[in-house]
Amino acid sequence: MIEIQNITKTYGASTVLNIEHLLINKGESVGLVGNNGAGKTTFFSALLDLIKLSTGTIQNNGNVVQESEAWKSTTAAFIDESFLIGYLTAEEYFYFIGELRGQNKATVDALLSKYETFFNGEILKQKKYLRDLSKGNQKKAGIVAAFIGNPEVIILDEPFANLDPTTQIRLKQILKELAVDPKITLLVSSHDLIHVTEVCDRIVVMDKGNLVKDISTSVQTLKELEEHFNPAHLI
Amino acid sequence: MYKHFITLEKKSFWRSASLSSEILTKILAWSGKVYVVGMMILASFIGFKYIDHELCINPLDVANTFLIYWFIIDLILRFIFQKMPMINIKPLLILPINKKKIIFFALGKTLFSFFNFVYAFFFIPFSILLIVKGNVSIVDVLFWNFGLIGVVFFNNFFNILLNKKNHIVYIFALVILILGSLQYYEYFNITQYTAPFFEGFYLSKFLTLLPVVLAIGLFFLVFAFTIKDVYLDTSVRLKSKKVKTESLDWLNTFGRTAIFLKNDIKLIKRNKRAKATVVLSVIFLFYGLLFFPDSMGAYKGPFFGILAGVLISGGFLLNFGQLVPSWDSSYYPLMMTQNIRYKEYLASKWWLMVLITGITTILGSGYLYFGWEAYLSVIVGAIFNMGVNSHIILLSGAFTKTPIDLMSSRNVFGDMNAINVKTLTLSMVIMVLPIVFYAIGHVIYGPPLGYVLVSLAGIAGLAFRNLVFDKIEKVYKSEKYVTIDAYKQKK
């Protein structure tokens, strides 16, 4: 589904992203972990063609993202609040995204009704603009908007951050369902190793722009990751 | 302590992401200031001489009569242009800094405003002339000036109060409107009452203390208001009110363009900054009053009529269009990842501008009062706006890299940061091009051919719309990454 070849991104003398090769198959769910500055958001931005790569190509569904825009109809993402339109109510925002993705109101409503428990009554019918919702509620709206229009690739940057514990658990449930769907390729970054190993069947570790680990999730994965991020010789 | 504040301010300027355009802005602003200072000095000499020699009345009396207008105009100018004392207050609130000190610094900063000094360049030469040539005693002139300084600082703090309390603005505007129209229709002349007051500065010396005392009182009032507001939940965080979800389905006849059109209408309705643009375009409707009445001899050249037509019908187009796509700056990454064709996006902005240009053209029919030719130039200007200027302005938008803070309306008159060489050139083209077309026709055959040529240019622009959009789309695409990056830099 997604194939990355020799991509680098440099700002002046510093290289912030440098991945030789990475192949993500259709239906996989990939968790991206790494410390601050590892290049996770940069990587996602490159996948979405929001930054100009210094070298290399990214293919999404057979199309090079820098050249063709065909990937846009099958890919959805929520990176940060710049994916929200602050002066719309949540409903208007969902319908707007729906219209762009060729979904009518009824279809969007049907999808939204599936996430009623996730919203916890704090998103729909609030008589508030998105900009006036709390950070956590904004995030809920943004995440669900990324599910509209049957996307084949879903990219979520730090979806767990800023959410309350109940919502985190519910989100984990939702992401797990998406992960097992063979039609959906899921990419999630997180600082929470437990969440990410629970949700994803493949974990990619980044460090200073490089890919340092690529493992299929198993019983040992969490331990392995904890050791990676807190090696014994440092204690 | 204040040393820290000053270094913070310096750093925020020099390390700003849009430094180069800010420097350009500063240079423009300073040349403007130098010009104003020059005009002040000139006005004081010429004014004094004219009143003294030609009218043979005492310049001081004349000055006292007009001071009330100066007082009001100064307040209006301040309200529009003077920057409010803003310091990045959030990170300072939890630090061990006395809140009073923060406010003192912020309010103190306003004392150094250009508005508080510029009048000195008028009053100092004027006062010297009064002493030397006008036989007014030094003591009187000093008291007079002392009182005026009090008035200047009174205005300084009154303006801050106006900016804080909306209802005072309404009351103030109403009072000015009533007094202004009473004076215009000669029922009541306020200067009869205010002139003795300003005379009182030197006739009964103690009156000079009144503005000074009022200014100081106002300072403490503003201080009290501000210090109450220094909590995150009042002035820093914005209030929210109940709102309704709107569908605007009647626009669906526009097909896919409607998706954006609906959004743009909500954008205009729900954001201060965009609403201010609408107000500004209404003001543009009155541009013709500068050109068409016979009393306005200065603008009577044959080529100015068409410029008036462009400005009257194009107020919204010019003010809104120059900030496409900056209107969507806060969610630009979203737009860039949805399956949107730039063309559809641009087309929706184009339709919005064309629709509103149509509305302003209809509203402009009031100019029929000045004869059919005046309104003809409005219609021809509108055709040119729709066909040519709409495209030029969308093109110039591709080079506008300033994110817009939709929630603040303060910047609407001074959004100088959005100006760069490319957009400046293109806005020159917008003004000059219709004049050139008209002038060619006018010189060859006379006004009719001038109007025909301008209209033809507009119609040609409409005919080649798709071709032009393809070109603009290419520019937008090549600027995409730079634009995304620039919009991330919040001010």
What report would you give on this structure?
The complex is a heterodimer of chains A (235) and B (491). Chain A has 8 helices and 10 strands. With 235 residues, chain A is an alpha/beta fold. Chain A has a single domain (2-234), classed as 3-Layer(aba) Sandwich (Rossmann fold), CATH 3.40.50.300. A 6-stranded mixed sheet of chain A has the order 6-7-8-3-9-10, sandwiched between helices. A 4-stranded antiparallel sheet of chain A has the order 2-1-4-5, covered by helices on one side. The longest helix of chain A is centred in the C-terminal third of the chain and has 16 residues, at 165-180. The mean pLDDT of chain A is 91. With 491 residues, chain B is mostly helical. Chain B has helices at 2-14, 19-55, 59-81, 90-93, 99-110, 115-118, 120-133, 138-164, 166-184, 191-203, 209-229, 232-236, 257-270, 272-285, 288-291, 304-313, 315-321, 332-337, 342-363, 372-397, 421-444, 447-463, 465-488. In chain B, α5 (99-110) packs across α11, α13 (257-270) packs across α19 (342-363) and α17 (315-321) packs antiparallel against α19. Chain B is globular and about 75 Å long. In chain B, 32% of the residues are buried. The interface between A and B is medium-sized, with 34 and 33 residues. Chain A: It holds the Pfam family ABC_tran. Chain A: GO terms for molecular function: ATP binding. Chain A: This is ABC transporter ATP-binding protein.
Short description:
The complex is a heterodimer of chains A (235) and B (491). Chain A has helices at residues 40-47, 90-100, 105-114, 116-119, 135-145, 165-180, 193-199, 221-229, and strands spanning 2-11, 14-24, 29-33, 55-60, 63-64, 75-78, 153-157, 185-189, 202-207, 210-216.
Which key terms come to mind for this protein?
heterodimer, A: 235 residues, Rossmann fold, six-stranded mixed beta sheet, four-stranded antiparallel beta sheet, B: 491 residues, mainly alpha, globular
